[in-house]
Specification:
Elements (H helix, E strand, L loop, with lengths): L1 H4 L4 H20 L11 E5 L4 E6 L17 E5 L24 E7 L6 H7 L4 H8 L2 E2 L12 E6 L5 E7 L4 E8 L2 E8 L3 E10 L4 H8 L3 H11 L14 E11 L2 E15 L2 E9 L5 E4 L18 E4 L19 E4 L5 E3 L4 E8 L5 E7 L3 E11 L8 E2 L4 E5 L9 E8 L2 E3 L17 H30 L1
Helix pairs in contact: 2-7
Length: 470
């Protein structure tokens, strides 16, 4: 990362470093501050040279009254009291008419519940239910219920159904309201507030264990391996002592952390070689990861089309396990349970789909003019993957099986250039498209701030780690 910083103006780094010192000093001078060695969150304003702590990682429970087990939750919504306005001798304040009271009944949806049974529990018959789901907008989406969701019924003063709310998650709620003689529904999505956080670690046994120790969840760990997986084989290439650093989003609702978002930037040192990835969203709204020089982290092809161990490597002098004769093994075999999904290594067109002799159920994809990939011994081919069809990189094209001349379930994968076999694990893969020249100025301005933020997080982490030792 340090040699990457040389390509950016020193003023940004200086501002970030100064801002970091202010944050660090504030943390160190607080006698009650708890130090987290691996994570912290704060904001950086690189234009103004300011930094401020935005979140502590202490979880605070919401102030809500516990529900009584075995009973429906009831709540009455009344108009909020407002401050009494000053009244002059010459004016009389208008007194608004009170809004009608609504009584809410809440039910946690369990396995076996139906929409009809939930309406019945709330005191409404199937006729009312049909009126709701046949309403306007997205009202019909109420028919799709899942265990774990919450449904609420609003009952007006006359005992009629005024509204229904289906909370699918903390972010998504389907709201249906009565409008004159019909119902109308729409889905409301809440947007969480993202805040940057930092984690770093050194691999002792595996990336998974090191990431967990650093505070990363499984999803972020998989995302990290996916970002660098084009250049690093995390099954065979990772070594003890390899290091990683990640700046990622922590998502907050109502001031409380509830999930994590995207990785914003990452650094991985594998066998002493530094790899840096920065998330960039172009002027068209498309996001991807790039090196600080604007080179795409992606390749035109996946290094491996399946997440599995190698059972037989590329070997042009291999002895065939069934025929017991020396026959070139022009591909790589991956042992995996039957039914495991197989991904297309790159964008292309289906050149062949069907049974291919000893290969069994096979798909051959053509990529451009000179590259083909072959996937053999499938248990079945994915729906729609037929001769002439187009597929996208990462799309599931089939499933692992043992069709053809094999001794057990596995994927046989071949990579050919101009018809000649190549070792898919070592062949130089073409890169995906880099940042276009017209976008480069915008890209550099954005990545200057990202690299400065990354360095500021690292410096602050070092200060905090030092404070925790003293």
């Amino acid at each position: 990362m340090r040699h990457v910083l040389k390509m950016f103006p020193k003023t940004h780094i200086t501002i970030a470093a100064a801002a970091t010192a202010v944050v660090s000093a504030a943390i160190l001078m607080s006698p009650s501050a708890e130090v987290e060695a691996n994570r912290m969150s704060y904001t950086l304003d690189l234009e103004q040279g300011k930094a401020s702590v935005v979140a502590s990682h202490k979880q605070q429970k919401p102030l809500t009254a516990p529900a009584v087990e075995g009973q429906d939750q009831l709540a009455v919504i009344t108009p909020e009291a407002s401050e009494t306005p000053e009244v002059s001798e010459t004016s009389v304040p208008e007194i608004p008419e009170p809004s009608p009271h609504l009584t809410w009944q809440t039910f946690d949806i369990k396995s076996g519940d139906t929409l009809s049974s939930l309406f019945k529990n709330a005191g409404f018959n199937d006729g009312t239910m049909l009126s709701v789901i046949h309403g306007e907008g997205e009202a019909d989406k109420l028919q799709r219920l899942y265990a774990g969701e919450t449904i609420r019924f609003a009952i007006d003063k006359d005992g009629g159904l005024a509204a229904v709310e289906l909370q699918r998650s903390r972010l998504e709620t389907l709201k249906i309201e009565k409008q004159e003689d019909s119902y109308s529904g729409q889905t409301e999505m809440r947007k969480p507030e993202p805040k940057p956080a930092y984690a770093s670690g050194t691999i002792d046994g595996s990336l998974y264990l090191a990431a967990r120790e650093a505070g990363l969840n499984d999803r972020l760990t998989m995302e990290l391996s996916g970002i660098f997986g084009w250049d690093i084989d995390f099954v065979y290439d990772v070594r003890k002592g390899d290091q990683f650093e990640v700046v990622y989003e922590e998502l907050y609702l109502d001031g409380e952390k509830f999930s994590t978002g995207r990785i914003l930037s990452a650094r991985f040192i594998n066998r002493g070689e530094e790899n840096v990835a920065l998330l960039y969203t172009d002027s068209n709204g498309d996001s991807d990861y790039y090196t600080p020089a604007g080179k795409s982290m992606r390749k035109a092809f996946l290094r491996t089309p399946i997440d599995a161990r190698i059972s037989s490597s590329f070997n042009l002098q291999r002895r065939h396990p069934v025929l017991d004769v020396v026959r070139p093994h022009e591909g790589t075999d991956y042992a995996a349970p039957p039914g495991s999904p197989i991904k297309a290594a790159g964008n292309g067109r289906v050149q062949f789909s069907g049974w291919k002799g000893g290969y069994g159920r096979t798909i051959v994809l053509k990529h451009g003019d000179n590259i083909t990939t072959l996937y053999a011994h499938m248990s079945r081919i994915a729906k729609g993957v037929k001769n002439g069809a187009r597929v996208k990189q990462g799309q599931t094209i089939g499933y692992v099986g043992s069709s053809g001349m094999v001794t057990g379930p596995h994927l046989h994968y071949e990579f050919r250039v101009n018809g000649s076999p190549r070792n898919s694990r070592t062949v130089k893969l073409p890169d995906a498209q880099p940042i276009p020249a017209a976008e480069m100025a915008r890209f550099r301005k954005h990545t200057q701030q990202q690299v400065a933020q990354f360095e500021a997080f690292r410096m602050n982490y070092q200060h905090l780690a030092l404070a925790s030792e003293n």
